Amino acid sequence: MQAFHADSFVLPLPPRHTFPMGKYRLLREMVEQQMPDVRVMPALPATDGELALAHDPGWITAVVDGTTSAAQQREIGFPWSPAMVERARRSVGATIGAARAALFGGEGVAANLAGGTHHAYAHKGSGYCVFNDVAVAARLMQAEMHRHHRCLLRVWVIDLDVHQGNGTAHIFRDDPTVFTLSLHGQKNFPFRKEASDLDVELPDGCADDAYLKALDAALAEAWQRQASAPPGLVFYVAGADPHENDRLGRLKLTLAGLADRDRRVFDRLR
Q: Is 29 a residue whose pLDDT tops 90?
């Protein structure tokens, strides 16, 4: 199995900034130490043309040239810098690399160790997300599948981050070839939700049993609704923030509950 990372590109954030940038390096190091069968490799940067598959050209230009407004930077949560641009490109590039490995490389499954930038819209960034890695990679894999095999690639996005994937839902809202499922905290960010194809909102304090029951029901409904046109590729946003010790998550999953969540998703996909 291959896993892609971009943790060499660290943003110069102000002191006491709330974003835990160092977690990505720690995760990579732990994977390298404890999972020798996983081939960890650096991500290539996404090109402007690849980004344009899911993003407005004006937004790409503003980010690359550093002409985003102060309000746009506040909505993202990062100050602009060349390092921010490079990291944003490589966060998308890691998901592209993983998708290619899974779909065309014989892997079946691959990972981005720092993906899930699901708050980015086509025309703006938000919530620490500059570009939407899953949206770009999904559109690119559809294009490559058509070019190589002359067939339509149907895609699912299963988003189990504690926050709704509002940017992803908005980008694909009128696209019948991409099915979006989001299981998230009802009262958590973003406070104005978008409409996914299937949304499941969870109350504060939701623990293992209730969460896993809701997940099973959502996966069963998704398969029932898509039985006539099953996906050829699935992006799983496996956020760790439903964990009970996440200071902003507001849900109460244990470590065992998170592991069981992941097993259920992979079992269903197999």
A: yes
**Around 5, how many Cα atoms within 13 Å sit in the side-chain half-sphere?**
22
- Asked whether the predicted pLDDT for residue 187 surpasses 90, the reply is yes
Look at residue 99 in the predicted model and tell me its pLDDT. 98
41 within 8 A of 2, measured Cβ to Cβ = yes
CA distance 197 to 77: 27
Residue that is written with structure tokens 């992803």 in the block: 168
Give pLDDT, residue 9.
Answer: 84
Distance between CA 215 and CA 160 in Å, rounded?
Answer: 9
Contact partners, residue 156, CB within 8 Å, separation at least 6: 178, 179, 180, 181, 222, 226, 231, 233, 234, 235
Closest by Cα among 258, 265, 155, 159 to 216 = 265
The residue type found at 25 is R
User: What pLDDT score does 259 carry?
Assistant: 98
Interval 160-180 mean pLDDT: 98
Tokens 């592991």 belong to 259
- Report the half-sphere exposure of 151 (CA within 13 A, side-chain side): 8
Decide: 185 and 261 in contact? Cβ < 8 Å.
Answer: no
Whether the model clears a pTM of 0.90, i.e. scores above it, the answer is: yes
| CB-based burial label for 18 (10 Å; 0-12, 13-18, 19+) | exposed
pLDDT at 16: 79
Nearest-CA neighbor of 101 among 239, 231, 3?
3
| Cα 146 from Cα 137, distance rounded (Å) | 14
